[in-house]
Design a protein that fits this description.
The protein is an alpha/beta fold. The chain folds into 2 domains: 2-21 and 108-239, HAD superfamily/HAD-like (Rossmann fold, 3-Layer(aba) Sandwich), CATH 3.40.50.1000; 24-104. It is built from 10 helices and 6 strands, in the order H-E-H-H-H-H-H-E-H-E-H-E-H-E-E-H. The chain has helices at 2-6, 23-37, 44-60, 68-80, 85-97, 111-122, 137-146, 170-180, 194-197, 229-239, and strands at 9-12, 126-129, 156-157, 187-191, 206-210, 225-227. A 6-stranded parallel β-sheet has the order 3-2-1-4-5-6. Helix 2 packs across helix 3 and helix 6 (111-122) runs parallel beside helix 10 (229-239). This is HAD family hydrolase. GO terms for molecular function: hydrolase activity. It holds the Pfam family Hydrolase. Keywords: Hydrolase.
Length: 240
């Protein structure tokens, strides 16, 4: 009964958690489709290297005054180093409008996760989406819908256009706590990435490691609970 009385906010990761996927298959589908969409302007391998380089810079950035989008595009332009970069930007924006949809083929809907969200909403819990803010809002919203959900299902969503940090930077979770005025000890974080999601435990959050589509780079696993999506749904109904 103690957890039931304490938890007020449930925080979910998106990719590999609410949205089942194989991370490597997702990355291949994404990189292949986005580089091919502008192959008339930039050689695909060169664009792919620039995308990963900029993402690495953004993840490592720790400047609380700069949003992820600004950090990313500055690093991306520098890494790409082409004279017609201003012409490339609108083409990449257009990619997310249509060609990005091919990536949905490597994802699927989890009925257990959809039911988990519905159950928590019906019970009146505060629900937050803590997806690593590395993609434009349109891309994030599409992946939410690929999961069988809607952006309106969440009180707050971390965004590429407004967040100042990425996972696994602990400041990423500090920012969520500050903006949403949360008590970390009343939060449950659910995710499939050992390093990126379980770090929330350092703030005092309860954490559930989702073992479906688990991502583990070798660090120690420190969590309160663990199991697959079916076990998670059962747990939520029993405890919350």
């Amino acid at each position: 009964m103690e957890v039931k009385e304490m938890i007020k906010t449930v925080i979910f990761d998106l990719d590999g958690t609410l949205l089942p996927m194989d991370a490597q298959a997702f990355e291949r589908a994404y990189i292949t489709s986005i580089t091919q969409s502008v192959s008339d302007m930039v050689e695909p391998e060169k664009l792919g290297r620039a995308l990963w380089s900029a993402a690495h810079v953004m993840v490592k950035d720790d400047d609380p005054t700069r949003i992820n989008k600004d950090v990313y595009y500055e690093a991306f332009e520098k890494a790409l180093d082409i004279p017609n970069f201003e012409e490339l930007e609108p083409r990449l924006d257009a990619y997310y409008e249509s060609d990005y949809d091919v990536v949905e083929t490597v994802t699927k809907i989890s009925e257990e996760m959809v039911e988990s969200i519905r159950y928590l909403k019906d019970k009146g819990y505060d629900i937050i989406l803590a997806t690593n803010p590395m993609f434009p809002q349109l891309a994030t919203d599409k992946r939410i819908r690929w999961a069988g959900l809607e952006p309106s299902d969440f009180r707050y969503i971390t965004r590429f256009e407004s967040s100042h940090f990425c996972k696994p930077n602990l400041n990423y979770y500090h920012e969520i706590v500050k903006i949403c005025e949360l008590n970390p000890h009343q939060c449950l974080m659910i995710g499939n990435d050992v390093e990126e999601d379980l770090i929330a435990k350092q703030l005092g959050m309860e954490v559930w490691l989702l073992e479906d589509n688990i991502i583990h780079r070798g660090s120690d696993i420190l969590c309160d609970w663990r199991g697959d999506r079916k076990a998670l749904l059962t747990h939520l109904k029993e405890v919350l």
